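Inverse folding, one chain.
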């Protein structure tokens, strides 16, 4: 069985992420979406919220499983018995960083391969950070994220405004 991990923060999941999930799920027997719990960052959504959103927007893809993880990706890959990491590339700057990470991961786990998929042109500009910035200023994010995700972002922004 070919099991791969598509790791990320997914804070929030965007249509660019969804495109990568759909495309990579067709290449493997099982695709695990690894939702990173990075304690160094202050995400908009908790890991649990991000997992729930991903479960909702990928529920129609039968070979996708959503799991949270912390620590090293290579350790997570060993725990779930994955032999491949899938990463998306938007631009040359992504490639430089991702190549360095792939080489580091390969040094720590020589049997773990990394596959790069380039994003579709219509998503090459899109990032979770951009979505959060647009939402923070009240912009329409419906063209960037699935509807259930847009609703949750709007709720979060309203709560933040009421606290500020």
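Residues assigned per position:
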């Amino acid at each position: 069985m070919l099991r791969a991990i598509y790791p990320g923060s997914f804070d929030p999941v965007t249509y660019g992420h969804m495109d990568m999930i759909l495309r990579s799920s067709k290449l493997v027997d099982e695709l695990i979406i690894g939702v990173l719990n990075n304690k160094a960052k202050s995400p908009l959504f908790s890991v649990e919220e991000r997992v729930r959103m991903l479960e909702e927007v990928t529920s129609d893809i039968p070979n996708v499983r959503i799991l949270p993880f912390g620590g090293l990706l290579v350790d997570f890959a060993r725990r779930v018995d994955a032999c491949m990491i899938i990463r998306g590339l938007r631009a040359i700057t992504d490639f430089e960083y991702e190549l360095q990470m792939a080489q580091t991961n390969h040094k720590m786990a020589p049997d773990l391969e990394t596959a790069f998929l380039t994003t579709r042109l219509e998503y090459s500009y899109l990032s979770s950070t951009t979505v959060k910035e647009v939402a923070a200023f009240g912009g329409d994010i419906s063209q960037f994220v699935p509807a259930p995700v847009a609703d949750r972002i709007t709720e979060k922004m309203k709560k933040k405004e009421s606290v500020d």
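Residues 92-108 form the longest helix (17 residues). The mean pLDDT is 94.
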